[in-house]
Amino acid sequence: MDLKAAQMVDSVGLNLIVTWIKWVRDRGGKMRVVCAGGNVLRTFKFTRLDKHVELVEG
Prior knowledge:
The chain is built from 2 helices and 3 strands, in the order E-H-E-H-E. It is of the alpha/beta class and 58 residues long. Strands 1-2-3 form a 3-stranded parallel sheet, with no helix packed on it. The radius of gyration is 11 Å and the shape is globular.
């Protein structure tokens, strides 16, 4: 998932991301999220989603 252009992720976006993580895992895959850092990276760490996806700063 490419979130490089995102400056923030709200609750609706987080819900969608969690749904995608479950969908990918159910099919035996792993999810990678590319973000520019800042608020998006802090949100992933605060919500502990960083434990469920591979975060790549780009």
